[in-house]
Design brief:
This protein is mostly helical. It has one domain (2-57). The protein is built from 3 helices and no strands. Helix 2 runs antiparallel to helix 3. The model has no long low-confidence stretch (mean pLDDT 85).
């Protein structure tokens, strides 16, 4: 969770910082878990959207690592 702190400069609340604070400082594990699942779903939807857009435009995109 160092990268969000460096990117935001400690002044901007990013999703990673919020999740870390819910698990660490607030001890609100259910809310932290819900934020984590929402973050994963948003990432999955973005990847699916990119793949659909690439298929329609005829571009070959590989999402494997």
């Amino acid at each position: 969770y160092v990268q969000p702190v460096l990117l935001g400069g400690g002044k901007v609340l990013l999703m990673g910082n919020l999740i870390a604070s819910q698990f660490g400082d607030s001890r609100n594990w259910p809310f932290g878990a819900a934020l984590s699942v929402i973050s994963l779903l948003m990432l999955a939807l973005a990847l699916i959207g990119i793949q659909l857009w690439a298929r329609r435009s005829g571009t070959k995109v590989s999402l494997s690592l």
